[in-house]
Amino acid sequence: MTLFNQAAPSDLRLPLGEALDFIATHIDTAIDDLAKMVAIDTSFPPGLGYEDFADLMEALITPLSFTSERVVVPCELWRAPGGPAQGQRTNLIGTRPSGKSVCGLYFHVDTVPATPGWQTSPLHLTREGDHLIGLGAADMKGSIAAVLLALRAAQACGVTLAYDPMLLLCTDEEGGLYPGVRYLAEQGRLEGHVLNFNGSAEPRIWAGCFGLFNLLVKVRGQPAHAGEGNRNGLGLNAIEASVPLLQALHTLKQGIAQRTSSLPPPPHSAGPLAAQLNIAALHGGTCGGQVPSLFEITLSRRYMPEENFEQARAEIEGLITQVMAETPGLDVESILIGHLTPVEDPDGPHWPRWQQAFGFGFDYAPESFRKWGSASCSDFGYVQRTGMREVLLGGLGRQSRLIHSPGEHTTTADIVSLARAVLVYLAADFMPHLRSEPSPV
Fold first, then answer.
1. For a pLDDT cut of 90, what percent of the chain falls above it?
2. How many domains does the structure of the chain reveal?
3. Do the domain assignments include residue 361?
4. What is the CATH number of the domain that holds 141?
């Protein structure tokens, strides 16, 4: 509490102190919110649950005096022919303007699909002691629950805020072709500065991150009865014809992994951040009685800020053309189904205040913060292209949280800590000398 006591004038300390206590005593409300969020399947692909999630969020933010607006990304922007995305891309904006400078509070509402290996139901929040287990619990529905708890505490205790919060609940961050926050930024819907909760619960200063693109490679052969095909040479097996391509991609993967970035790596990293190529998914065939005529390969390429997207894509597609040309009769198509651009250094005038607030919430000393980037990706590269260079970052991510894996979880302690960090950052009487805007009336 030392930082808070030094930062808050005595006449304003009581409501903020009460609100901090409110967070600790009302954690069960946040857990209930999180359980409702986890129960809605917003996995991308395909992204079919966005409308239902918007319904839930409207019900949760209306009592906090927010006015909500749904913004739908036009289908011609995100739909790739033959791609995996389906359903309406519904983004939700929550506002309650009072004339103060705006602080956007960003969340992506999609999760990755649940993979085999879950010991609990991924769409049911399971509480085991301090652990809250469920798909999206850490990435990043738990952050939504934490921020709602902070806003609920501020409202209940009468805390004056320095900023007008704007809730940004956005689609298709998990590798989509046209993420929702990109559309909002390009439509001029973002205001003030933005706090992105797609980050870590560790003492981190964001240095930026890699870009990502996903390619869907469709290899088409010729269907036939399996018995007739083997005996008479009928049919063309798309899976078997793709084996040389898979081998060539594996060789290319090893070469790409030798390319390293100057972006500072995380403290836990064994070395510099490196480019990546992964075979992410394989689909083909129907049964033993048919020659498989379609084989689909999903490739995921994480590219460094030093690399060029067009060149990185051309390298892969050139290899595909070269290898598959050796088997006549095949029809091969490569489709871009997802793309996130790199994020450049997002430093700016609000970072010192956010660092102090985050350190207060999680009880981190100032000297424990380190500046680092990552090979994980963000949809905020598109936001930076519109001129909003500064992006604050925080969240519930930790190495131990099994994000994108069976057993993904967060903890009640981290939700409380993040809620405390958000509360004091938004509060008018927390370190007012670090605000770059005029003091609120």
1. 89
2. 2
3. no
4. 3.40.630.10
Q: So what's the pLDDT on residue 160? A: 96
Asked whether residue 54 is assigned to any structural domain, the reply reads yes
pLDDT band for position 9 (cuts 50, 70, 90): very low
User: Which strand (E) or helix (H) includes residue 376?
Assistant: strand 370-377
**Mean pLDDT throughout 225-253?**
87
- CATH number of residue 313's parent domain: 3.30.70.360
In this structure, are 157 and 247 located in the same domain? Answer: no
- The residue-averaged pLDDT of 349-374 equals 96
Asked if 215 and 340 touch (Cβ cutoff 8 Å), the reply is no
Rounded to an integer, what distance in angstroms lies between the CA atom of residue 96 and that of residue 339? 32
Tell me the C-alpha to C-alpha distance, in Å, between residue 21 and each of 131, 156, 160, 355, 393.
21, 11, 16, 21, 24
Inter-CA distances, 226 with 139, 237, 330, 433, Å: 45, 10, 18, 75
Domain match, 191 and 299 both = no
Q: Is pLDDT at 171 greater than 80 in this prediction?
A: yes
Q: Give the bridge partners for 371, in sequence order.
A: 205
- From residue 375, give the alpha-carbon distance in Å to each of 47, 209, 265, 384: 24, 6, 9, 18
Q: What's 408's DSSP letter?
A: -
Burial group, residue 345, by CB count within 10 angstroms (0-12, 13-18, 19+): middle
pLDDT at 229: 57
Mean local confidence (pLDDT), 263-290: 94
Q: What is the pLDDT of residues 306-344, one digit of tens each?
A: 999 999 999 999 999 999 999 999 999 999 999 999 999
Please give the full DSSP string across 53-115, using - where no structure is assigned: HHHHHHHHHGGGT-EEEEEEPPHHHHPPTT-S--S--EEEEEE---SSPEEEEEEE--BPPPP
Q: Are 272 and 313 members of one domain?
A: yes
Q: If you average pLDDT over every residue of the chain, what do you get?
A: 94
Same domain? For 241 and 195 the reply is no
Q: Which tokens go with 49?
A: 């649950």
- On whether both 188 and 244 belong to a single domain, the answer is no
Residues contacting 104, CB < 8 A, separation 6+: 166, 168, 190, 191, 192, 193, 194, 195
Q: What's the whole-model pTM score?
A: 0.93
Which of 369, 429, 418, 428 lies closest to 394 in space, CA to CA? Answer: 418
Separation of alpha carbons 345 and 342, rounded Å: 10
414, containing H or E segment: helix 412-426
120: amino acid identity, one letter: T
Q: Who's near 128: CB < 8 A, 6+ residues apart?
A: none
